[in-house]
């Protein structure tokens, strides 16, 4: 299996075996880290991480993973580079490739990260776009595998804005990993026909199902993991909060819903999450719409079902695996 020099732009670009290998590599790195064993394989490399949207987990994962691998890391914040304003994506990609051994990008349209990859001659890693969040779902599946021992036969349900970046990548990863996937949300926010058409044949080949529904009852008793994400993603018009709340309020993940699942059902969330009023955005929403919890109640978030902090930790191990695999043989050459 050769990952050398490859980009990591979306889940569908990788085979089932390649994705499994990434998860296995992440597991090894997690062990090395827990044992405190040095893994500074790339003391001569440098990477740049470009963020056109804000981030805690993804930024810190790339930084810590980069340092753990012995690399230098440059962070460019949403206002800190010429990219897009004064310099084209193509020119930025060619300049950054002369300085760095790898480029992470978080931003808006998927086409931007695809263009960066087209013009860069070093690996480009997608740290979230409007359409995909591939490093997130690697961590999600690593967490599920750790928790359940195996992914085989599991059913994952995404509840909420089922056509957002995280949901799109979860459908693709579920199809690749043979995990049954249920996208549950209002009809207005159902996954696009294009995404479904790409994933369905893969799911069929791997013996799992993809279900799209607006009926929460379809989850009853058969779901191993419930996944929620914010109701309004970064980059979406804030004016949409009212409409989104209206559509998604019935899909809030609460204890009544969790009780209808299995006793062993876990709760996942990409984070950050609006489960209380301890953020300025949540307080604004509360003042305007009177809602003190959104996609998940605080009770579920803090319950024994919730494995969201294991999931957050695994962002770092999986991102390290992606960087290591795509950079590794360059070192040997
Ligand atoms: N889940 C995730 O991508 O978090 P950040 O926005 O903090 O990076
Ligand atoms: N769907 C969310 C994911 C954040 C990690 C967003 O794009 O804001």
Question: How would you describe this protein?
Answer:
- The structure is a single chain.
- The chain is built from twelve helices and nine strands.
- The protein folds into two domains: 141 residues, 3-Layer(aba) Sandwich (Rossmann fold); 176 residues, 3-Layer(aba) Sandwich (Rossmann fold).
- Helix content is 44%, strand content 12%.
- The strands form two sheets. Strands 7-6-5-8-9 form a five-stranded parallel sheet.
- It has 333 residues and is an alpha/beta fold.
- The structure holds phosphoric acid mono(formamide)ester and norvaline (NVA).
- Norvaline binds next to helix 6.
Helix content: 40-55%
**Which descriptor suits the 3D outline?**
globular
Number of E-type strands = 9
Q: Structural class, from helix and strand content?
A: alpha/beta
Spans of at least 5 consecutive residues with low confidence:
none
Q: Report the C-alpha radius of gyration, rounded.
A: 19 Å
Bound molecules: phosphoric acid mono(formamide)ester, norvaline
Order of helices and strands: HEHEHEHEHEHEHEEHHEHHH
Give, in spatial order, the strands making up the sheet with the most strands: 7-6-5-8-9
The average pLDDT is 97
CATH class of the largest domain: Alpha Beta
Short characterization:
By secondary structure, this protein is α/β, with parallel strands linked by helices. It has helices at 16-34, 57-68, 89-99, 110-119, 134-148, 165-177, 193-205, 241-248, 255-259, 280-289, 298-301, 308-332, and strands at residues 46-51, 72-76, 102-106, 124-126, 155-159, 180-184, 210-213, 225-228, 266-269.
